């Protein structure tokens, strides 16, 4: 368990990393070329990591940092360090550069291949969603609780998809099948953008269902811990308990997951 002083240090660092981007939000021009976009994204990542790593080095001097590229979708859990930070420098960065809301700073501490602390900070709303394994989930200092809805027609479901759909016809069919079933089951279906914030919103009762078909582990981990600690149900799209190697994620209000299982797409 992290100490209260360590948690306070994390809160300050994550908030500072996010707040530094507020003065430029909607003041910088929207990138118009690939080169402009890539340069802006690289700048965002560098600024964010610098803001996080410096203050956390003193409190966690021996804990290494893994970038998403180092973590990798195909990385086996057994090849990773026993403890490490995994950071999405800005989840929803495309929203930021497009002058849209829905961008966050996501940080997760992994130990023995499990998330033990996670933070998702929304600077525009000044909301810090965070959780520690076995100790519950919070937004700022308020405990999170998922929705208690039971009528599908008043539920709000969201979906995400991983990269590479243009290269994988089978995955496209699976994603389409899942979205079709959401549309046929729930009253409102949306895609809000950043993975972590959508998962945190399920934990907060603002959303009722999150579905992603296709593996996206590094994007799931912070929000997954927060949703689970809040009391949400965390499964695969097939309705089985979620596990490290799963290639899908279904997070719902408690007791709902078993009623939603996408049928296999036709080949």
From TrEMBL:
Under Pfam families, the record lists: Inositol_P
- Recorded source organism is Hymenobacter tibetensis
What is the recorded name of this protein? Answer: Inositol monophosphatase family protein
* Cited InterPro entries: Inositol_monophosphatase-like
Q: CDD domains, per this entry?
A: IMPase_like (cd01637)
